[in-house]
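Dear colleagues,

As part of the handover before I leave the project, I'm documenting each prediction I ran so the next person doesn't have to rerun anything. This entry is a single chain, and its sequence is reproduced below.
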Amino acid sequence: MDMRKLGGGWQLFLRDLSSLEHALSLDEALWVASSAPISALAADPVFLANLDTDKNGRVHVAEVRAAIRWTLARLSDRSAAGSDALPLSHLDRAIPEGEHLWLTAVQVLNNLDLGEAQAITLQAVRDRQRILADDTANGDGVIPPSPDLDPEVRALIEDAILVTGGVRDASGRTGLDEPGLDAFLKVGASWLGWSEGAGDRDLAPFGDDTPALWAAWGELRPAVEDHWARCAEAAWHQASGTEPQVSAPLPLAQLPISPAAPSQRLDPAVWLHPRWEQPWARLSPLWGGGALDRPAWERLCVALLPFDRWQAARPSGKIAEVPSERLRRWLAPEGPAEALRDLMRGDAAVARELNRVAELERLILNQRWLLEFANNFVNFSHFYDPDRVSLVERGALVIDGRRHTLTVRVEDVAAHKAIAVGSRLFLLYTKVIPRGDEAPMTVAAAVTSGTRGHLERGKRGVFVLPGGEIRDAEVVDVLENPISLWEAIAAPFTKVGSLISGLLESFSRSREAQIEGVIRAEASSTEAQLQGLPKPPPPPEEPTTQKVGALRDTLVGGGVALAAVSSSFAYMANTLTSIDLVQLGSIVAVLVLGATVPTVILAVLKLRARNLGAVLEGSGWAINHPMPLPRWAGSIFTRSPALPRAARRTRRDQLAEYLRRSR
């Protein structure tokens, strides 16, 4: 077990896949991270999805350990770490899992006409999956009505989709699965059983006219039943000698079929509501026309009730659109339904094959990514290594003449900033402008060396993705902290200079405003005189005497002021000449130290407290211990590129040459 000090803490170093075994026995508290969101990692999305076994969008220690055990158990040779080509000889065929993976790899290579290959690549596995996804049998248990199928089987699938609606297969086409086939055959058998009752004489007492008479009876039945009830009420009132309650007149549409009478008869000669004239005309021949009494109506109901119950049992849906002769073919014991079931069983076999192909893909991905992932999770050696792009980093921000490589993805700037404030780092929250259909991305870039320079909101730069592609970038927010010791020392003097500059600028603006006001007033007065407005009154008498007095007062006041200033400078000069130069230097040094020492101490404390872990925690990482960034190591993540060694350097500024040419 190789433990090394990195960033002030002890971390387990992992050189190859075999060394991952040490991570299994290392207490998780000694891992740099114990969980991380998969959205914060720049790795193959299928690899990350395989790691996230509980599908909560995060990877934690137990899932990483499970991936390590699963991978090491299936590889007898672990020397191909970092490669997306798995040599077949590296599979441990002494265990059933390794033998199954070897057989699957051989089958995939044979299907792709690569039977002589000694290794299988990730691209080959994924090509195989694509080919299967385009085929009818793709392991999802859904068979679409493909033109390549037997016509009878295809017609069966189309009828079943018509009735059941079908389901989507892996390629997005509508097809039929086994539960859908069973449901279709069940409703088809019910339909055939129901439709065969149409020839039963007990169900059709009036022969071919029964359906039409049943429809008219069903339309007329509520009105007639209501009429009998009102007739019974009228008979009760007659027998009891009471008068029925008189209601307000009803509109025609709400009137009953006929007036009620104690005689329990419905006589159209008295009055028949026009709404029920057609069904009445259709049914009246059954009781000889004319008035209808209740016994005749009940005999009609007894005759039509079996047909009514049969109609109530009619299967619903679109099954009636499938001809009965086709339904009988689909339900035949040796018919197309059995052939379709065979296809579904074959598809299930493909599903098992796809599962093995998926396991093979998982093993290749783990061989390629697992060691690199561990060096960005168990330890952070790749994170600190300037020659590597770690999985944590989303790319490099090039701005203000520097390259910043510590960039982490941020979902919520305000939430990240609230946590990252404890990092004591200067952070640039930068929006990466997408191209085409790319999703927008915001990153936090750490400035770890140099000075602030011109790094402000709105500052634009470029963002270099891990693959080398470049996107525009713009700073949207800044978390301010000291970047370097020299900048912290100069900060008080910079603030004093900015304050003096601001005061002078404010005084200059106020004086300019006063002068501008005087000029505008004089201009307005002159313009008024030119336009013929009344002239101002003449000056008072004896102007010469007043001007002379004013001039005298000005000269006297100016002389006094000049004398005061001169005496002040003389006093200062005498004082300075009386002070020893060493004493003067000591006073200046004390003043400078008094202003800078507290600032330097505070800056040193802040720079010593810089913690990279807080930046990651703001992005959802669970970091086990602080990740300090020493002041001397700041250039790992922020650096200005050096000039090429082979470049010829001319000290004289070329601008001077351009100035000479312009004269």
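Residues 554-558 have pLDDT under 50 and may be disordered. The first strand starts at residue 2 and ends at 6.

All the best with the project,
I.
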